[in-house]
Amino acid sequence: MKQLAGAIRIGWVIEYKGKPWTVTKSVHIKPGKGGAFMQVEMKSVEEGTKTNERFRSEDTVEKLMVETRDCQFLFEDATGLTFMESDTFEQFTMPTDILGDSRPFLTDGMDVKVSYIDGKPISVDLPLQVICTVVETEPVIKGQTVSSSYKPAILDNGVRIGVPPFIGVGDKIVVGTSEANYVERAK
Fold first, then answer.
1. How would you list the strands of the sheet with 37-44, edge to edge?
2. Tell me: the pLDDT tens digits for 122-161?
3. Assigned CATH for 2-63
4. How many C-beta neighbours within 10 Å does residue 59 have?
5. Quick check: 26 pLDDT over 70?
6. Which CATH number is correct for 67-125, 2.40.50.140, 3.30.200.20, 3.30.530.20, 3.30.1300.10?
7. CA angle, corner 99, sides to 121 and 129, nearest 5?
């Protein structure tokens, strides 16, 4: 569906140089001299690379229709990550690098959202937060309950993050999957 470049929004999937790209940032700029334009940061759906592009406001771009389906992660093997659609129970495989740095947070049986273009799965959206267990960190310092400094910790999935000083080995914590950051102690 053709759209004016001046209407580009974050989250759109557009066709650029014959390939699908997801818009991650979009800023409308009107300089003092010359015409207005859109400064757009995009991520390639197929390769995962990023690029910045400038579109004149009157340019047109092809907005791709994306369908989102509920799926469940089943397992990983030599062929990739295997998922199952929750409605049809149909199984499909995606490359292991589709999640990038967020891959360690994907666990067996996890419910995820998978985006499709023309019936082909293109991306996986993990839950925004997951619960992990701290398996290694410095000991808790008695009386230190609030501090602006963080100490290093290793989670049960092997990810290294910074945690507050009062978090100890065996504690369950909520972790943000997009930036691999401590959110709060799990309840």
1. 2-4, 60-63, 13-16, 19-29, 37-44, 50-56
2. 778 889 899 999 999 988 766 665 656 889 999 999 999 9
3. 2.30.30.30
4. 14
5. yes
6. 2.40.50.140
7. 110
